Amino acid sequence: MPEPADTAPRIDSSFPHRWQATILGRRPLIAPARHFVYPAEVEEVERGALELMVRPPANGDFLGTFALGFADPSVPTGVWSCPHPDWLCAVAGGYAYLVNTTAPDQWEQVEYRPVLAVASLPKQRLLLFSGHQSLVAYGPNGKAWQTGRLSWEGFKILRIDDQSLIGLGWDMMTDREFEFKVDLATGEHQPA
After folding, report:
1. Rounded CA gap, 128 and 88, in Å?
2. 79 contact partners, CB below 8 Å, separation of at least 6
3. Cα angle vertex 69, ends 129, 147, to 5°?
4. Phi/psi of residue 146, nearest 5 degrees
5. For residue 62, what are the β-bridge partners?
6. Which of 26, 50, 81, 90 meets the CB 3.0–4.6 Å disulfide criterion with 15?
7. Helix (H) or strand (E) holding 12
8. How do residues 153-182 score in pLDDT, each as one tens digit?
9. For 127, what's the count of Cα atoms within 13 Å in the CB-facing half-sphere?
10. What pTM did the predictor assign?
11. CA distance readout (Å), 99 to 45, 59, 78, 134
């Protein structure tokens, strides 16, 4: 029998960072003076939202409310440090948000909905996001690269070394799995 999925939000501090964040079980009854909702235009953001109390290096604490993507234990939820020490990544049910903690109105949502996995690569200074068919990487200056389609539907990361990522994808035309290799400096990929 498979082990039940761990649904607790995780905190990954692989990159050096200048902020602190606490995952809250629910929104505080008295909200702090600064409260940011990501994305601002979403309806019913409270249902299942990830609530974070963030203490940046300056400008005072703020509450971040991050809209839930999917209430599914197979997609990630948690907080990741980023290659830039002032930015954090909050993931709520597979919806990933990158926020500048020193100016919380500066933020970006990762385009995959959902993000299926997040990987911190401190040596390469990359935060990697897996979608159903491709990968996107963010570095200290924002989006570094995005691969083309690696698989028709889903793939598995087999291993990561200093320069490359090896994965296993599926080809719809041949109905077979195949290995691929992604250059971590450029995002270019080819069969392994």
Report:
1. 13
2. 9, 10, 11, 12, 21, 23, 52, 88, 89, 90, 91
3. 25
4. -140, 135
5. 54
6. 81
7. strand 10-12
8. 899 999 999 999 999 999 999 999 999 999
9. 29
10. 0.92
11. 17, 14, 14, 23
